[in-house]
Amino acid sequence: MITESMSKQLKAIVGDKYFRTDPEALITHSYDGTPMLQALPDGVIYPETTAQVSEIMKIASANRIPIVTRGSGSNLCGGTTPLQGGIVMVMHRMNQIIEVDMENLTATVQPGVITGHFSKHIDDLGLFYPPDPSSMKISTIGGNIAECSGGLRGLKYGTTKDYVLGLTAVLPSGAVIHTGGKLAKDVAGYDLTKLLVGSEGTLAVITEAILKLIPPPKTKKTMVAMYKDIYGAARTVSKIIQQHIIPATLEILDNPTIRVVDDFAKIGLPLDMAAILIIEQDGEPEMVARDIEAIYTICREEQADRLEIAQTREEAEKLLTARRSAFTALARLRPTTILEDATVPRSKIAEMILRTNAIAIKYNVNITTFGHAGDGNLHPTATTDARDSEEVHRVEEAFAEIFEAAIALGGTITGEHGVGSVKAPYLEWKVGEAGIEVMKGIKAAFDPHHILNPGKMFAKETRKRLVIHHG
After folding, report:
1. Quick count: other Cβ atoms within 10 Å of Cβ 194?
2. Would you state the pLDDT for residue 471?
């Protein structure tokens, strides 16, 4: 509960109009991109500087007020939902690209910078920032760091953690720490930078980041391979990597996704295919030409039914846009769309998709699968109706079995969406009881009063493991 005295103190820090308790502000910050999850905060605050964040945290710590940091709210694991009330700290006013250092190839940015805007700005300077989450048009750099976001280019270029060199962060006490820097090498103590990346707002409030930039690829080539046998598509993925070819993009869409995406994007995808691979390679022109030719041969050997190489960048962008629009296309089908993620070794992709399809049939629910075939990160997506509690229960049971299947195949419960509150009951399945205790110890060291994003990552109760028998 926020008292009148606390409210005055907070307004004195950020200004009257940047601390709000009106119903409109509370309701619009009571949910994020996660369906069927909502909780009202007690207030919403919009800081502009690290110093302001520090002062806010001092008040929050002294009064044990929960703080949930938020960017654009595109989170898909309930990570920015204020489950225990308190204050939602919105980082959008901290949206400056402070510096682009052309000598050290780094950029220093505030957390509220929109990822897509940042990427374009860097492109215009003749450099390249590879992380490209599908939400990049609206998601923020701070949110990407909190979740260690991935994207279509993750196989070749890595994910957000591979591009964060240093951070400025505010601890729950209000103390400010600086980690890393514009350095290629730094082993001074524990790697706090890597620890904070992916910590989902549970350890500190990130207020500034130093990001690594790289030279852009000189050319790109995109192709699509279509299969009537999903195992042929999966073998193609494995064989491409076995031949030491690392594509910039290697995406897969299963048949139900193909149908929905084509209906949405109108690009003429054949609807009788079991799976489609969208493959892009970039780099030096000679290497790209050689790799695309080799990939084409592999696709033929694995019985691809149709192969097409984009002749122009416009054609290539159409294919990649179709993949990026998968979630949007699926969201048109039913009132509620639940986009999940699980990762398996790439050799297990076909088996995971087929298990997902079998699980969907078992529970009589609609689930389609698409994702990043090159790194094994799949997105099983259910279309349902939140008003139908019985169907929603079946969807939840289906996803529990999908997560169990992923772990049984040597995978994990999340590759890029995070744990938040949605995956918290399953975290122990992946890391074990001892792993949970180590993580709780880290949380306590940073946040002894548990005011930063409480109720996330650690469930009150671990879900009971399923006993799955697969033929």
Report:
1. 16
2. 40
State both tokens at 341: 């993620």
Q: What is the CA 381 to chain-centroid distance, rounded?
A: 14
Closest among 198, 195, 250, 214 to 102, alpha carbons compared: 214
Pairing of strands 366-372, 87-90: unpaired
Q: What is the CA 225 to chain-centroid distance, rounded?
A: 26
Cβ–Cβ < 8 Å for 136, 234: no
Q: Which residues contact 202 (CB under 8 A, 6 or more apart)?
A: 443, 446, 447, 452, 453, 456, 457
Spatial separation of the C-alpha atoms in residues 93 and 71, rounded to whole Å? 10
Residue carrying structure tokens 């926020």: 2
Bridge-based pairing of strands 87-90 and 43-45 is parallel
From start to end of 373-447, where are the E strands? 377-384
Please, are residues 6 and 61 in contact by the beta-carbon 8 Å criterion? no
pLDDT in tens, 289-314: 999 999 999 999 999 999 999 999 89
Whole-number Å distance between alpha carbons of 417 and 413: 10
Helix 230-242 / helix 285-301 crossing angle, nearest 10 deg: 140
Amino acid at the residue 151: G
Band of residue 464 on the pLDDT scale cut at 50, 70, 90: confident
- How many other CB atoms sit within 10 Å of the CB of residue 438? 11
Q: Is the pLDDT of residue 9 over 70?
A: yes
Distance CA 26, CA 270 (A): 46
Question: How far is C-alpha 178 from the geometric centre of its chain's CA atoms?
Answer: 25
176: its two tokens: 């400010």
| Locus of tokens 């701070």 | 142
- Terminal CA-to-CA distance of the chain, rounded, Å? 54
Q: What is the pLDDT of residues 392-420, one digit of tens each?
A: 999 999 999 999 999 999 999 999 999 99
Residue 280 β-bridge partners: 222, 249
Rounded distance between C-alpha atoms, residue 357 and residue 378, angstroms: 13
Residue 469 has pLDDT above 70, yes or no: no
d(CA 135, CA 416): 12
CA 416 vs. chain centroid, Å, equals 4
Rounded to an integer, the average pLDDT of 127-139 is 95
Give, for 220, the enclosing helix (H) or strand (E): strand 219-227
